[in-house]
Amino acid sequence: GQVNPAFEHFMSNLIRQKLIVAIDSLTSNRKEGARKFTLFLPHGENHELGLLFANYMLRARGHNTIYLGQNLPHTELEPVIAMQKTDYLLTSVTSIPENFSVQAFINDLGARYKNVKIAITGYQISSDNSIVAPKNVKFIRSIQEMLDFIEQV
Questions:
Q1: Which of 115, 107, 38 is nearest to 72 (CA)?
Q2: SS3 state at 45
Q3: What is the spatial distance between Cα 138 and Cα 122, in angstroms, rounded to a whole number?
Q4: pLDDT tens across 5-16, in order?
Q5: What is the 3-state secondary structure (H, E, C) of 86-127?
Q6: What percent of the chain clears pLDDT 70, i.e. is strictly above it?
Q7: Which residues contact 86 (CB under 8 A, 6 or more apart)?
Q8: Max CA distance (Å), the chain
């Protein structure tokens, strides 16, 4: 039944390395009307494979991305969003650190960056239908929804 955490980390890091190489190998094929995305994982979140995959898919479709990586307090995003002129903020919430409220995080993100479209994915979003999205926040609850979202922007 269970995978040893050391094996899980080993495989995750192999996949991570392959995704980073694939992202770096993409030629600059910015499409007309390309959107600007800022991707990050909130403070305490280290599960980045899904977000790296989304970064690859967005870039492969000609969008501009800034990938800020893991474990970033969302309160630190404002200068990047302003400088990048971000259209979309994309994040994932998979694990919950102690004293972290997913709903409070989502509410604060939506209120703090109300002029930006926000997409949130991850296990905590897909597994809890009681979480409510502010009007500028879209939940992505499956890989298919992520692919559909990327194709539609």
A1: 38
A2: coil
A3: 12
A4: 899 899 999 999
A5: CCEEEEECCCCCCCCCHHHHHHHHHHHCCCCEEEEECHHHHC
A6: 99
A7: 36, 37, 38, 66, 80, 116
A8: 48
